[in-house]
Design brief:
332 residues, alpha/beta, seven-stranded mixed sheet, 24% strand
């Protein structure tokens, strides 16, 4: 457990909703900071029974006797009055919605955010996803001060993380939330001590890389592109929202892939291969992509071996056999 750093006079309001934010909230609590309230999303119906579900941050706050605010609208006068009454010195935002200026500019020390990229690159709603989709080998976490335009405030601290060639967005997310939590504690400590010097964001020399919200058309596997591009797309969208293609007229979500070891085969992009036992592959523009974990429309997610046990496809020659046949033909 991290050693506690007590700043009894520093009052902090934490704004966050999903599990990603809980790691940061917990790190601040364990470091001894005075969290005077948690602001999170209203309870929402979910599950088969559509029962009201609390956010991950609300559950943590209630378990640690921290007051919780759940505004529908962030400009609601009653909510704003509640914020003012807490007399916070600093606000911390992790994985929350966009704040109006009247909120982020309220505390004297301002509001800081934990963002899942090496700013100024990958500003936007989905930095983890887009870094992987674009085939980056490195990403990171940045803490910065909020201002009007999203993700453009002065930077405070950064931490770098390598990205493995087969790592999914979910796996990177889990590593990043822990790194981000520790970086946040360092940032708050630096601000409390007055030792941090904010650095303005400037235009990157290599140009801008954006991280916009993910839409359905982003998730479609395009077999006209390269194997590596589609491998990156699949892992960048796994486990949520998931890349997809179509098989026998049904949606097939794909969660894990590997570029095939076979040499590129002379089949049209979009062609399928299966041995009926453990291999399911789709042909892209320059070779085969092996699908390792899939979910057919209306079915549960499963590894390809299990999927093929209950799904019958026409057996085709392997890519290697196709190449051998062509070579044999050309030698005659």
């Amino acid at each position: 457990m991290q050693a506690k750093i007590f700043h009894p006079n520093l009052r902090i309001i934490f704004l966050g909703t999903p599990e990603f934010a809980v790691a940061s909230l917990e790190a601040l609590v364990q470091a001894g900071y005075n969290i005077v309230a948690v602001v999170t999303a209203p309870d929402k119906p979910a599950g088969r029974g559509m029962h009201l579900q609390q956010s991950a941050d609300k559950k943590y706050a209630l378990g640690h006797e921290i007051p919780v605010l759940q505004p529908d609208k962030l400009k609601n006068p009653e909510f704003l009055n509640s914020l003012k009454s807490l007399k916070a010195d600093l606000q911390v935002v992790v994985a929350f919605r966009m704040l109006p200026e009247v909120v982020w500019n309220m505390p004297p020390m301002g509001t800081i955010n934990v963002h899942g990229s090496l700013l100024p690159q990958y500003r936007g709603a989905a930095p983890i996803n887009w870094a992987i989709i674009n085939g980056e080998r490195e990403t990171g976490v940045t803490t910065f001060k909020l201002k009007n335009e999203i993700d453009t405030g002065d930077m405070l601290l950064q931490a770098r993380l390598p990205i493995d060639s087969n790592e999914t967005a979910g796996e990177l997310h889990d590593r990043m939330k822990e790194v981000g939590a520790q970086l946040l504690v360092q940032t708050v400590h630096g601000m409390a001590q007055g030792t941090l010097k904010p650095v303005p964001q400037t235009t990157p020399p290599e140009g801008w890389k954006h991280a916009p919200k993910i839409f359905t058309n982003t998730c479609m596997i395009d077999t006209g592109k390269t194997v590596q591009d589609m491998h990156n797309l699949v892992r960048g969208l796994s486990p949520y929202p998931g890349a997809f293609t179509h098989l026998d007229g049904k949606i097939l979500k794909v969660y894990r892939t590997l570029p095939a070891a076979d040499s590129p085969a002379p089949l049209a992009p979009g062609s399928w291969y299966t041995d009926g036992k453990e291999r399911l592959s789709v042909c892209c523009s320059n070779g085969w992509l092996d699908l390792l974990e899939v979910q057919m429309e209306g079915k549960k997610r499963m590894i390809t071996d299990d999927f093929l046990r209950g799904y019958r496809m026409q057996l085709l020659p392997t890519p290697a056999q196709i190449s051998a046949q062509e070579n044999d033909t050309s030698d005659r």
